[in-house]
Amino acid sequence: MKLIKIGASWCSACLITNSRFYEVIKNFPDIEVIEYDYDFDNFEIEKYNVGKVIPVFILEKDGEVISRLVGERSKKEMIEFIERSI
Hints:
The protein is of the alpha+beta class and 86 residues long. Helices cover 34% and strands 29% of the residues. The longest helix has 14 residues, at 12-25.
């Protein structure tokens, strides 16, 4: 399973969420984490239909998107998002 994180350096919600995100993913060592920048990784994120609200967290299994979480989220919300999809 992959967890794709899409954010930007200018995004205040991304900056706030970053520390929570890095704490959360420590609890899921079997999940591969891929990070893309909204401004610089256009080719990579194009297939995920990312809108104007970031950060975006996408869980992908066997090449298919199985779940998506958009916007600033609490640590609890991120954990529940991952646990629901495992």
